[in-house]
């Protein structure tokens, strides 16, 4: 690799590092409940080698009933050990994954394309809103994407025979990283087997033992496959759980019966319904609003005024996508990788979803790089080419500066509540006051038990015997109503008659009876987030 290439690549990696570390301790503005669950389960493993429910070294973490993939939590253990139960301890791991992915995008693109494509692709990935959004929060998708990306690189790199075996281990580990990989990775491996079928026929022993290695690493996961609880979350969120599907099919068949239309069952049936629903969901991930303007409707997964990609990259993305249909050894892989990345999310009811398609980020970056290089190559006059490159650079820089402005200034103010801002302050105050009360009652709008465990550093050995989750709701989530002296539920109507209870809730939780709160916690924009109160804080019935 030439010195100039090394210098540019190092510059891109340093840029990726700076963008992902800058103000990471304060932005995102709160600690989301999933992040809190990662932290506490890592802490529980560190202290007891068990999860919060007392299961020894589990391969699926029950958490809120959604059974999180295990690898991210295990990798978080040393971060929690060194940094403590803080947001940065869980986010730094994701940040490292994102920086590593920036480097791998360069090397993967370099297998099939010129170095300049790899450099531009790594730069695009470094500033891609989709990757930045998730690399700056604790999310398993960053780990899953890195493992698959590394697996592809080592599988396709033929420099050393050992790379093949290493790639299979990485692919296997992706199954333990995030649920979307359990769909993406098998499909990608099937594609790789198809395109390398002739080579496999000539090296049967090598690929047979490769399959054996892959299955060996996946064998522990099989124990959970037959556990119905393990599938509760996917079962509740998939398109196959749509209760309206059967009712709609029956209604359409009933309407056909008015006309005595015999083939109704061939037109109105579940397979066709699910097929069209999948295609509809798939198309939503390709909408301009999702890609360039609004992004995910879940506010912790979006930045105000931005989609998954910078708008300035749109023409290069379209041009690059067209170029994938031209003959190139890597074009088919990039195209298939892009298409498969949207599959897992399209099988769910809640679409479009940025969190379930993080695997697409490297492919988006490479496609944009291919398109940009193609545009540059169309400009034949050197001076015009320079003007074009400068113009593109300025437009990308301007677009990205707007994104950063919105990400660091507007989004933390507007979405503080969605990020569960204020829980650290709440439990600092609880620690000060709880000795004066027999019970601390926190409303459901204080986001539940997991924050008490994290911010009070509640001993896992004491919590595990008490851990009890309610029945799961229609979305596959449960609730812990209480443990120790802490209650997490709706407030009772007779607040003013409850003695020796400290109430903590949002302004709308107090039945309109709050008169003089003991303490207020504020959002960054100055609005009240939470009130502290006891029986002396409420209006009497005769007032």
UniProtKB/TrEMBL annotation:
It holds the Pfam family PMT_2. Coiled coil: none annotated. Residues 68-221 form the Glycosyltransferase RgtA/B/C/D-like domain. It is found in: Cell membrane. Keywords: Cell membrane, Glycosyltransferase, Membrane, Transferase, Transmembrane, Transmembrane helix. The keyword tRNA processing does not apply. GO terms for biological process: lipopolysaccharide biosynthetic process. PANTHER family: MANNOSYLTRANSFERASE YKCB-RELATED, MEMBRANE PROTEIN. This is Glycosyltransferase RgtA/B/C/D-like domain-containing protein. The lineage of its organism: Bacteria, Candidatus Gottesmaniibacteriota.
């Amino acid at each position: 690799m030439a010195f100039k290439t090394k210098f540019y690549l190092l510059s891109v990696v340093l840029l990726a590092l700076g963008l992902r570390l800058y103000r990471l301790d304060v932005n995102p503005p709160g600690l989301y409940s999933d992040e809190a669950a990662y932290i506490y389960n890592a802490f529980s493993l560190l202290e007891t080698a068990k999860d919060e429910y007392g299961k020894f070294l589990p391969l699926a973490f029950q958490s809120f009933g959604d059974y999180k993939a295990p690898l991210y939590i295990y990798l978080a253990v040393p971060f929690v050990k060194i940094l403590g139960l803080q947001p940065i301890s869980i986010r730094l791991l994701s940040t490292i994954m994102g920086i590593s992915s920036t480097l791998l995008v360069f090397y993967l693109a370099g297998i099939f394309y010129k170095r300049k494509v790899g450099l531009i692709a790594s730069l695009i990935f470094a500033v891609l809103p989709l990757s930045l959004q998730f690399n700056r929060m604790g999310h398993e998708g960053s780990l899953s994407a890195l493992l698959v990306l590394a697996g592809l690189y080592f599988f396709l790199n033929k420099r050393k025979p050992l790379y093949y075996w290493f790639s299979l281990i990485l692919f296997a580990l992706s199954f333990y990283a995030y649920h979307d990989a359990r769909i993406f990775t098998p499909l990608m491996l099937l594609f790789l087997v198809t395109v390398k079928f002739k080579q496999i026929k000539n090296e049967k022993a090598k690929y047979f033992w490769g399959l054996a290695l892959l299955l060996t690493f996946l064998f522990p996961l099989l124990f959970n496959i037959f556990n119905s609880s393990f599938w509760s979350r996917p079962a509740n969120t998939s398109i196959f759980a749509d209760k309206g599907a059967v009712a709609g099919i029956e209604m359409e068949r009933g309407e056909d019966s008015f006309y005595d239309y015999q083939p109704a069952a061939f037109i109105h049936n579940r397979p066709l319904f699910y097929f069209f629903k999948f295609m509809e969901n798939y198309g939503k991930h390709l909408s301009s609003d999702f890609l360039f303007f609004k992004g995910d409707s879940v506010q912790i997964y979006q930045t105000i005024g931005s989609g998954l990609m910078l708008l300035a990259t749109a023409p290069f993305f379209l041009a690059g996508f067209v170029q994938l249909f031209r003959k190139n050894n890597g074009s088919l892989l990039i195209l298939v990788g892009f298409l498969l990345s949207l599959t897992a999310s399209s099988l769910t009811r809640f679409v479009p979803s940025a969190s379930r398609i993080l695997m697409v980020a490297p492919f988006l970056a490479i496609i944009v790089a291919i398109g940009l290089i193609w545009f540059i190559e169309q400009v034949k006059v050197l001076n015009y080419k320079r003007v074009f490159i400068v113009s593109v650079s300025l437009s990308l820089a301007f677009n990205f500066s707007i994104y950063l402005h919105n990400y660091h200034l507007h989004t933390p103010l507007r979405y503080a509540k969605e990020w569960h801002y204020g829980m650290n302050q709440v439990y600092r105050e609880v620690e000060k006051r709880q000795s004066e009360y027999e019970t601390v009652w926190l409303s459901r709008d204080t986001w539940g038990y997991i924050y008490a465990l994290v911010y009070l550093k509640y001993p896992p050995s004491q919590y595990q015997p008490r851990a009890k989750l309610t029945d799961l709701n229609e979305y596959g989530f449960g609730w812990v109503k209480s443990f120790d002296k802490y209650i997490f539920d709706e407030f009772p109507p007779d607040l003013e008659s409850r003695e020796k209870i400290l109430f903590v809730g949002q302004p709308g939780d107090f039945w309109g009876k709050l008169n003089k709160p003991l303490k207020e916690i504020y959002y960054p924009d100055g609005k009240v987030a939470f009130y502290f109160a006891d029986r002396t804080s409420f209006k009497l019935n005769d007032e």
